[in-house]
Amino acid sequence: MDSAPLRRPTDITLPMDTFMIPILRHSCPSGLTLLLSVFLSLALFACNDDQGNGTITGTDAATLTVNPTQLNFEQVAIDDSIAELIVIENTGAATLTVDTFQIQGENASAFSLAEGTPSSLRLAPSELAEIYVEYAPTAIAASSGVLNMRSNDPSRQSFNVELRADAPSPQIFTPEIVTFARTPEGSEDWRITEIANIGYAPLEISSIVLDGHSDFSITYPQPTGEEEEGQFPDRANDTTVAPDVILPGKSVMVRVIFLPTSSDFRTAEITIESNDEASPRTKVLISANSDAPCLEVDEEINFGQASIDNIARRTVTITNCSAIAELVIGKIEFEDDAGVFDVAESSLPGNLSTDGVANIGPRQSANFVLTYAPLEEVLNEGVLKITSNDAARQNTYVDVIGQGSLLTCPNARARARVQGTSRWFDASEGIVASPLATIELDGSLSDDPDGTQVTYEWSLRDKPLSAQTQISPSITSESPTLWLPYAGRYVVELTVYDGAGLTSCEPSELFIDVVPGGDIWVELAWEMPTGAGTDLDLHYLHTQNADGWNDSNWDVYWSNRSPSWGDGSTVSLDHDDTCWTWPCGGPENVNHDDAVAGSYAVGVYYFPGTSDGDYPTDAIINIYLGGTLAQTFERRMSNQEEFWHVADIGIPEFSVTTVDELTDRMPGR
């Protein structure tokens, strides 16, 4: 009579590498063999860990754990390289052996293992190893492949890490506007602007066209190696031939020449057509004799793909590009909205929500919010109309587009911390920092409910008036930085896109308040002509002890940055903009803490040593007392060696007395 087949208990898992029961070829096992099999089965059941539900969790197998399982490389220039880390860990109970590392794939030639990568690994339980994969493109093409590894993990004897990199692409950058101050009829003036390729592939220029008033013309300065960086005072080497290609990291200069035939307001624009897919047509606005109000706004607001049954939001910034006149906004409304776009009335600046107006001061900005609620999977288009007192365009039109999608929109989650600290702040918290600090931004907590990887788009929505700063190194980085040169509020916004191009319904906003410490904080900024190096120096004088400005101990300036006054106070010039190369314009600041009773004076000197010539320059002084802005002063300085005695500060009254005296030379020199 045949014996019944030997069966294991239902919930018992027997690791195959623990022992093996020989397969018997006889149809009827002997009694000794049957007895031995039952004995070994019961012994294994007793020795393994039982969790109480009949499941045995103990194992002697090695377990391969790899993180991450997909590498997405950032763009780099051709013949440059970037490396990404893979961590391999043995999370099992036996020694893990990984005996093969091989990059595979038809389009994987740009990937390689870093020099020094071992040919195999042998990892004890809980031990880990690091492997670096390098990406070095040699052509303008996307790359993809896998890193294959083989191991003794029974469930992962062959395992692939996906490798992906988009094709290197060009990215055009140029200042959005070139402005000329009021220029007398018949007098010629010029400004230098630039067209830069901040991408990773050659920027091919199809055309550069100047349209607008005939009082403007453009040429292209050719470097000789003798001029200072970014400055081309000699026009003998200019050409009228536009560049064909701009290599990654390079730029070309454009000289905009203004020869007015009258004192009337003049405008023009430069249109640059290139192979930058994100901005195939880039415009640079030109304005002159701009005592009149001047409105600047994006020509297009693109919501991208937005989720149906959700409301997407976009912040729009209006800037008054006049240095003198006030811009008055009379109305912001959709002329054509397709029934899905709207203006969030609660976000409108000034009294626009109650049929009033919004007043925007010189060089200042205001924000408002547009919403998009798509109803179906179609492309929606609208036209936003902004009415203002800008004489050049009293009605400004902005194209608004969006694409409805059935997918779920990704979630933008921004956070930030002050560089050198460990505390992260998210969008629900305000961040406080000191002037001259650097903020680390991070969007890695953003996600897509549909499971695709998100990409990032950062924008600096608001900043102090004089702050010449930008998000670096790229607005598309996962973790960029932002330098905070001046006191005031900075607003950073993060928008993310999923793998299908669907945009986040809500951008994530970070509010950063930069508050100076100490008793007295004085900061200087200046607006200088494009293409001219104009150097201003901040002076802070202890008037009761000093013999005069430039005193070797009692005047704080670039040559006497941290004097010891012996009164228990601490005073220093923390930042000096030397202006050896254009652009410059600050910041410069003096910080005075534990100030004792006395009188202190603030002055500004138009330094000749590093200034190109006598250019009209608008200087701005902010005085903070106890961390609060006490007063702002502005003055146009026109000639080298001019000195502006701005104000006097009294302690312990914490008072500011306006002086506002401009002299041809520094007093006493």
Model description:
- It is a single chain.
- It is built from one helix and 45 strands.
- The chain has 669 residues and is mainly beta.
- Strands 2-9-8-4-6 form a five-stranded mixed beta sheet, with no helix packed on it.
- The relative contact order is 0.07.
What structural class should be given to the helix and strand makeup?
mainly beta
Helix content: under 10%
Q: Mean pLDDT, nearest integer? A: 85
Return residue spans where pLDDT drops below 50 for at least 5 consecutive residues. 1-58
Largest sheet: 5 strands, mixed
Tell me the number of strands: 45
Q: With helices defined by DSSP (H or I, 4 residues minimum), what is the helix count?
A: 1
Major beta sheet, strand line-up: 2-9-8-4-6
Computed Rg = 33 Å
Query: Beta-sheet strand percentage?
Result: 35-45%
Distance between the termini: 123 Å
Shape: globular
InterPro entries: Cep192_Spd-2-like_dom (IPR054090), Ig-like_fold (IPR013783), PKD_dom_sf (IPR035986)
Protein name: Choice-of-anchor D domain-containing protein
Organism: Lujinxingia sediminis
Domain Cep192/Spd-2-like: 63-163
